[in-house]
UniProtKB/TrEMBL annotation:
Gene Ontology annotations of biological process type: citrulline biosynthetic process; L-arginine biosynthetic process via ornithine
Subcellular location: Cytoplasm
Transferase is among the record's keywords: yes
Gene Ontology cellular component annotations, sorted alphabetically: cytoplasm
Binding site for L-ornithine: N160, D224, S228, M229
Pfam families: OTCace, OTCace_N
Transmembrane portions of the chain: none
Residue sites binding carbamoyl phosphate per the record: R101, H128, P129, C130, Q131, C264, L265, R292
Protein's name in the database: Ornithine carbamoyltransferase
Record HAMAP family: OTCase
Enzyme Commission number: 2.1.3.3
Amino acid sequence: MIRHFLRDDDLSPAEQSAVLDLAARMKADRFGHRPLAGPRSVAVLFDKQSLRTRFSFDVGIAELGGHPLVVDTQVTHFGRGETLGDAGRVLSRYVAAIVLRTHGDDRIAEVAEAATVPVVNALTDGFHPCQLLADLLTIREHCGGTAGRTLAYVGDAANNLSHSYLLAGATAGMHVRVAGPAGFGPDPEVLARAEKIAAGTGGSVLALTDPVEAVAGADVVATDTWTSMGQEDDGLDRLTPFLPYQVNAALLGHAAPGAVVLHCLPAHRGEEITDEVLDGPQSVVFDEAENRLHAQKALLTFLLGAAPAAPDAAAP
Ligand code: CP
Ligand code: NVA
């Protein structure tokens, strides 16, 4: 069966944990795993801008022994008549997997329905699940694990990062609180799905409007831009209502002592996060950015059914 990764809840708790275990092993032995040797090719397609996702997939596929084909879709027939389904069917004849950053989730779903190879969401309007694998790996490294830890995400709680924190955090057994201004709360379907997942993992999810209530006692404080790609001209005030949600020293002071700060980057310094916090001792954002590489290598390996046996299983 072909495994796609379109949303964070496409991995079960056990599968998510296995991918993160593999990511940690791949980080420790960076060039020791080459499941794409041949080389097998992977298409990495962008309808939107990127720095981290573009480079981490390009470098990661090469480190797995594969051949990355990183393409901006403006130079393809995407968007000028060729259906996404036809493109998915054609690319499946060439490559081992398709990675796509695009707008609506319906667009990546159309590719996945037609593709005969795994399709990976490299960010859509709805979700950013590869980012969350990197974030969870970073939380494991800095907090000793994920289960039972409290994560507060403050800012635009209606965006892709908020949705992915809810789903992936619940899958990892975390207590996830998201807080944004009125009118900027999470999609009720995603919140309900995260609640259901959390009921099975011992985690919990909460949607709030008070940033201090969200951050109080949290082990991890996360934020993201107040204006996501494609929202620049949506006519909403994306500054004034968000000012109380800025991650600054005062807000961070409500978190648990030693709490760590995440930001997927790019950051809008002085808006959703201050220099003082982003460059401060509690920030782990550059570890987080590095972990995109290791997490995505593990994800591709898992989706291609090429994960090496865990060390315990290999023991005599
Ligand atoms: N965090 C993230 O996805 O960054 P890019 O938009 O630069 O890929
Ligand atoms: N929410 C942001 C994340 C960027 C990595 C966006 O979609 O633009």
